[in-house]
Amino acid sequence: MHFAQYYLDCLSQASYLIGDQTTGRAVLVDPRRDTDDYLQDAEAAGLRIELVIETHVHADFLSGHLEIARATGAAVAFGEAAETGFPIRRLRDGERIFLGEEDGEGGGAGVTLTVLATPGHTMESICVVIHEHPDDDVPFGVLTGDTLFVGDVGRPDLLSAAGRSPEEMAARLHRSLHTKLMVLPDATRVFPAHGAGSACGRSLSTETSSTIGDQRRLNYALQPMPEADFVRLVTAGQPATPGYFAHDAALNRDGHPLLDARPPAALTLEEVLAARDQQGAVLLDCRPLASYTHAHLAGSLHTSLDTRFAEYAGTVVAPGTPIVLLADPGTEREARVRLARIGYDHVIGYLADPVTVLAGTSTLVRRSRRIHHTELPVEDGQLIDVRNPAEYEAGALPGARSIPLAVLPDRMGELDRHRPVVLYCRSGNRSVIAAALLEAHGFGDVCDVLGGYDARGAEAGAGAEAE
Known about the structure:
Layout: E1 2-8, E2 13-20, E3 25-29, H1 36-44, E4 48-53, H2 65-72, E5 75-79, E6 89-91, E7 96-98, E8 112-117, E9 126-131, E10 141-145, E11 148-149, E12 152-153, H3 166-181, E13 189-192, E14 210-211, H4 212-218, H5 227-235, H6 245-254, E15 265-267, H7 269-279, E16 282-285, H8 289-294, E17 296-297, E18 301-302, H9 309-316, E19 323-326, H10 332-340, E20 347-351, H11 354-359, E21 365-366, E22 370-371, E23 382-385, H12 389-394, E24 401-402, H13 408-411, E25 421-424, H14 430-440, E26 446-449, H15 452-466
Parallel strand pairs: 3-4, 4-5, 5-6, 10-13, 15-20, 16-18, 16-19, 19-20, 22-26, 23-24, 23-25, 25-26
Antiparallel strand pairs: 1-2, 2-3, 7-8, 8-9, 9-10, 11-12, 13-14, 17-21
Helix pairs in contact: 3-5
């Protein structure tokens, strides 16, 4: 058997290539949109990708099922309950997919996949059990999609099915977990679709695989409890949903243009300003945080390539908006590809040599205002915590109001533009993104807390040690 996990740190997303090296037949599960790695690895291993399986309609990234289908002729498969705008193979609960030799009577040898219908995160969610040989007592592993993570379970409120509440979806998730996954042998490896940092769950582990036995013992959501308690547990305290999720879910369900991975065009400052003024383009500065705060074009948004770039971009930039990049030289293509992974394809170009341009354009340049936590409170200031709700509930600065970054674009109207706005997060990254957003929308007196909430705790700890 050939088995490979592809883990994308910037989106906390995992995809899988499984093949039978005797027949050369292979399946790709939950692929991202830029597919070169899969195609090159399959060719090197002598494998033909014949089927793309989606464990559900994803919301946090744009899947590469259409790109793979075009490149290889592979069919695209979803769980039976999926509704899509393009032809798919519908996978039934209990269906077996033989990658080895088939015997013509519904059986076969070699690597075998078994489909489990596991509604709860979404109605069409499935998991895929992998056997190296059809009759093995213990499966090699199970691909759990967004049904079961390492340390968590899929959230039932993200894109609840029409007419079904998060509570009803949570009840379905409970049944799926306990009747389909927890009955597998403890030694069965668990391979989820996401890890720590994903908004598809609340407390995902940094580990990218586990076992059924370890999750039975260690996963908070799998401890013995009545279904009603499970429902209350998994519907509470979930992170705010980034604004682009609904956009991506629709593209994954209905179809999307194939990836254009060409480098973006270099633009002069005059062309950048014309794109902003005439086409409504946003200026997205993806340089490191320190470079942005030192000097940036007035009105530009910010999210650095060395953070969760695409997720944050999808939070502060509306889907379909034209984008001009301000990037360190040589990183423009990477930025474009990472935006394309969430379906943000309208990149007009990038500002050539931004450092030189900024140095020679003082009237258009701004420097971020950042304050130390000891400078709080700011007179007449509005102190805004842009962390997720669970972080806020665990501890916040005195007088702070919670407006998570993911929902700030929709809640800017709650802020008084005539009073100072002070923003903070955990360490000072999200707060800079939030400050840039407010400044771009005309807020004049905006600053953020340098080092965020952690800075105050770190200084308090250092002081205690000194005593």
